[in-house]
Amino acid sequence: MTSPADLAREYTGLDIGARQHLDRLMGSWGMLADLSFSDLLLYVPLDQFSLAVARPAGEAGTVGLHFVVLGQMRPTTSATLFELDLVGQVVPAAELPLVLESWRRGVVITGARSGQAADEAAWRDQCVPVRWRGEVVGVLDRVWSPTGGRRTGGLERVYLRLFDRIAAMIAAGVYPFVSDEADVEEAPRVGDGVLVLDAEERIVFASPNAVNALHRMGIVSTILGSTLEALGVEDAAVAHAFSRRVPVIEELERPPDAIVLLRCIPLVDEGAVTGGLVLLRDVTDLRRRDRLLLSKDAAIREVHHRVKNNLQTISSLLRLQSRRLEDRNARVALLEAERRIRAIALVHEILAREPGEQVPFGEIVPALVELAKDATDPHRRVEIRVVGDAGDLVADVATPLAVVIAELLQNAAEHAFAGVAEAEAEPAVELSLANDGSRLEVEVRDNGRGFPEGFDIDRTRSLGLSIVRDLVRSQLSGSIAVSSDHGALVRLVVPLEPGAAAPLPRGA
Q: Of 148, 198, 324, 396, whose CB count within 10 A is highest?
């Protein structure tokens, strides 16, 4: 679906400043829909040519003018009147007389919605010009039905007056504020709790949910007529919002366990702050869950840290034991086991540092390369190159994959060039990694003597290649193929999507 930003770029002649102003409005207009118990539509003239031809007074100047619906917002405090999404719809100006009049005159216009079916005859429009740097760049259309929705009471009347005050700020070009510290995704909404402040920061209205939030903070004294400071609530956010004329959001914590998110929006009229709208959201349970998750995450990382330490201890013990053995084959076997354990420990080392179960595998590869170099003949240098990146992998994939790559690199570096004269080839091994999101492809290629004629990995007696084959097929649910082409080539394909089966590697 085309985004509002794309629509604004493609269909309007608005500059980037005006587009950003409209983006800010749509970023916070959920509050306006809730306050007005209405659907909101944002209309913008179709292009710069239409802006030019509509400027002259009189109906002749509106020929050819169209509006595009740049955005749509439904209320959470009332039922919507529009079942379909109207974003992107292009409407002739003649079909939107109230929108057109509000845009041309730059004033708020209210009246019956035209062009509706018989059952929609009671729908009403309140069209608010959206002004940016003195110019009207769009029209915010509030659509509601007086015969449907909520019954009007004291709370509803307060909310509607708040909407009218903010609508006047929109028409004056004051709202939305250029500087807004609120995180839109986390900011409290109207349904969470509303306080209305006068110019002296006294509370003149408190919704039931706002009262509940204050009670959660231990405030049981009279709320109306008091200031937040008098109630014992930190009011730095309100003071800052009033003095700087910008919205401010702050998290208030009251022992033993009450946490409330407070957002203060100054209400401005002709350059003076005449009051404030305070939204309160009780986030106590949400923050408690966040802290539990952080605690669990820390515990999991501690487990990985201890596993890594234990594996390193086992690795050291195997290395010490190998030095006491006189049998060369037994000593080599212990050293190979020690290197495999070190490969597994590398994964747990990353998991002990990084939160979550995703492993940035690129951080492990250099250590795997060093493990392979340790196994080579010190008198014959083997170059190991790495191409591509495996990306982030879950631990269940990263752990066996680390052992597989360590084994393949070590096998290539240690055995591929046995009996090959140095003059024939400069020993080189290349590790290639490619991750397309659904599967991981791994290739280990060398320019050595290649696999023996008739080599079959399913019948190999090599312990290392047997480990690789079994890990790829059983733990990684992948496929493996080997070939000789100016050296040995091992190709692996590992599925990354749950339940997916890996196709055979190319050349299998």
A: 198
